[in-house]
Amino acid sequence: MRILIVEDEQKLAHALKECLEYERFVVDVAHTGEEGFFQVNERHFDLIVLDIMLPGRDGFDVLSTLRKRNLQTPVIILTAKDTVEDRVLGLDRGADDYLVKPFAVAELLARIRALLRRGRADNPALLKVADLEMNLITRDVSREGKPIDLTTKEFELLEFLLRRQGTVVTREMLARDVWKVSVRAVPLDNVIDVHMTRLRKKIDQGFACPVVQTIRGVGFIVREPS
Q1: Which end of the chain is more exposed for a tag (fewer CB within 10 A), N or C?
Q2: Superfamily of domain 2-118
């Protein structure tokens, strides 16, 4: 399980990282809202611990933007304010839980475990864009109700793209998160391009509007046809 901590107090962030890593979580840290938002767009997280009072872009703004982009990763907000209005605002913006500073790390761990057990971690049973649907339970893919037969790797590739609908996905991201290769090489880029070509033929060929597009020199994007 990978967790992102977005906290500008470096001592607190470091302490939380050590505690979570002791519990065998993989932990990344960001010290600003903008850095946290960038990391969420770069890789998959199972849960986010998000401070509200951040320099520049605050936690409320980051949270609202993530939810508007349909990212359903569980978020626990950290706040120094304990008013009802602040708690309501955080939950209305899309938070799943909140903790008021100062807090006991044991309580944070308990809340993290509870949210992860809930199974909301950015893992809906159905992923959809336009008339393309992917059922993660039955592993069926269809467009306009017509079944599409994908290989295992093509399925993983399409799932990764659909989870980041509306966001440009680079070859580096695909190499790291789909092919599980940390160091990208030119031959792997070629393999990625071959798989993308095959995938696009299967899901876009014969349909009026493509849902997978190439962003020249950058990567690929899945989005609603304009």
Answers
A1: C
A2: Response regulator (3.40.50.2300)
